[in-house]
């Protein structure tokens, strides 16, 4: 786990709030926190991260990467959001 993800995890544990991060770091931080939340059975944090990641699904690469993450960590709602994006945008992302 990256030190900044660990710091954000501790911050959440003690404050029940997410650390503020730069806009360009939000996806990577949400991904790292989702993995940590799954590892330590922190369902509320896992749901918060999954919801945050849902809002960043806007291209095929992000959708596929996020779908893989959702599958690995049992995030059904996030998985469905990725599948919906890919299905709805098949003409743009398909062969």
Which key features would you list for this structure?
95 residues; mainly alpha; Potassium Channel Kv1.1, Chain A; globular; BTB domain-containing protein; BPM1-6; BTB/POZ_dom; SKP1/BTB/POZ_sf
Explain how this protein is built.
The protein is mainly alpha-helical and 95 residues long. It is 73% helix and 0% strand. The protein has six helices and no strands. Helix 1 (3-15) packs across helix 2, helix 2 (26-39) runs antiparallel to helix 3 (43-54) and helix 4 packs antiparallel against helix 5 (76-88). It comes from Miscanthus lutarioriparius. Residues 1-55 form the BTB domain. It holds the Pfam family BACK_BPM_SPOP. This is BTB domain-containing protein.
CATH architecture: 2-Layer Sandwich
Q: In the CATH scheme, what's the topology name?
A: Potassium Channel Kv1.1, Chain A
Distance between the termini: 36 Å
Order of helices and strands: HHHHHH
| CATH class category | Alpha Beta
CATH superfamily: Potassium Channel Kv1.1, Chain A
Low-confidence segments: none
Structure class: mainly alpha
The best one-word shape is: globular
How much of the sequence lies in strands comes to under 5%
Helicity range? over 70%
In DSSP terms (H or I, runs of 4 or more residues), the helix count works out at: 6
Radius of gyration: 14 Å
- State the total count of DSSP E strands: 0
What is the number of domains?
Answer: 1
**Biggest sheet character:** none
What is the average of the pLDDT values? 93
